[in-house]
Each structure stands twice: as C-alpha cells, then as structure tokens.
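User: Sequence in, structure out. Go.
Assistant: Echoing your sequence, followed by the structure tokens.
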Amino acid sequence: MKSLIIAVLYVVLTITPPLNAISYGPIQVRVSDALLMLASIEYFGLEAVVGVTVGCAIANIASMYGPPDIVVGTIANLIAASAIYLMTKKYKGIVMRVISGIAASVIIAVLIGYIILHLVAGIPGPLVLIASVLVGEIIAIVIIGTIVSTAIERRLRHRLQAG
C-alpha cells in the first residue's frame, strides 16, 4: 500500500502543472525525486524504492523523449533509490542521508544527461547536460528530499513512541 501511495504522489508531483514544466528536459528540477529519500526511512524502505520506480515509469509516459525515457528514467530511479536504501540501511544519520542523496543524484544525472538528453535527444555537450541535470537532482533529492524525509522520520518516531 505504501508503494502505491508513493507512486501516485510521484506521478502527481511530476505531471501536474506547474511542476510538469520543470520535470523534463535539459534544465530540470524534478521535485518528485525528493521522494527517493523515503527509501532512507526504515518505515518505507524497499516500498519507497518500488513506489518511486513505478511512479517514474508512469510519469515518464508524458515525457517528450518517449519510450527511451520510460525505460532509462525508470532504471535510473530504481538504481538511485536502491543506492539510498542500501547506504542508509547500514549507516544511519543525516550525513549518510546526504551522501546517499548525492550518489543518487549523480546516478540519475549521468543516465538522463548522457543517455536521454545527449544520445536520444541529440543535444550536444554531454558534460554540460549531466551537470545541468545534477544541479536539479541535488536540489530535489539532497536538499528537498533530505528536509522532507528527516521531518517525516521525526514525526514517525514521535508517533510510534506516543502510540
């Protein structure tokens, strides 16, 4: 059930205006990618990995880059969310959460910047494309995702202790 809710949230945060205008392309801040950080919370864990992966596959149906973005984008989210899950499962704390978010951002930036934007879309300057996507992913995953996931985790901890 958690996977389904995360997938729906991912789709809504990706395709709903005005967020859809910044969710695709060489200059993007896919706000929905902040949800990848839910994989760092024990309560969500692998269900978050599944949710953001399925959500990405559905959201990328609306992508101007077509089936390649559905496949590559989904694989990118699967690998990135899995990295967050595995890194934060073994090592807890805000530092590892940030490091895992940076790793996830790099994974997505390389796969989307190089494969989708450079190879599929034919946009020149692969390193600039990777850097551009990386900036957006750092904003979404590391900054927004860390703030949101930390707040959710605190709230869950408080709720579990009170209940």
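User: And one key feature?
Assistant: Residues 2-162 form a domain with the Arp2/3 complex 21 kDa subunit ARPC3 fold (CATH 1.10.1760.20).
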